[in-house]
Amino acid sequence: MRWLCNENIPRNLVEELRRRGHDVAWIRESSPGITDAEVLTIAVRERRICLTFDKDFGELAAAAVLPADCGVLLLRVQPRPSLESSMEIAAAIEARADWAGHFSVLEPGRVRMRPLGRLR
User: Fold this and answer.
1) Which H/E stretch holds residue 52?
2) 2-115: which CATH topology?
């Protein structure tokens, strides 16, 4: 999958997703300090799913019309600064393949998903 990790995603998780073969761009490497709206614009332009811990993306995603291959995945899990924690989160992400086209929330023990408005 093609991911755009927001600045707040830990390096361990970015590296674990890359190790598992995902195409991962990371705002901390490419454009640190940009606004959330700019992050979402990059996700749309690059046809990526935005991975974030920032709850503000719920409102941004609800107001946006996104291409079908974009989406937002809000992590509501407590990241620990360990490789094991990153592996657990990456495994939970890989357990589904339908993140695109949705605003999703990954919580301990459950996933909530809401379809987003899409460009045709």
Assistant:
1) strand 49-52
2) Rossmann fold (3.40.50)
Task: Say if CB 4 and CB 42 are below 8 A apart.
Answer: yes
Element (H, E) at 18: helix 11-19
Task: Give the separation between CA 26 and CA 29, rounded to whole angstroms.
Answer: 5
User: Is 65 in contact with 88 (CB distance < 8 Å)?
Assistant: no
Using CB atoms within 10 Å of the CB of residue 98, give its burial: 0 to 12 exposed, 13 to 18 middle, 19+ buried.
exposed
Give the domain ranges of the chain: 2-115
Distance CA 60, CA 87 (A): 28
Q: What b/e readout covers 35-65, taking b as 16+ CB neighbours within 10 angstroms?
A: ebeebbebbbeeebbbbbbbeebeebbeebe
Q: Which residue ranges in the chain fall short of pLDDT 70? A: 118-120
Compute the radius of gyration of the chain from its Cα atoms.
Answer: 13
What Cα–Cα distance (Å) separates residue 98 from each residue in 10, 53, 69? Answer: 23, 19, 10
Question: Letter for the amino acid at 11?
Answer: R
Residues 13-29 pLDDT 10s: 999 999 999 999 999 99
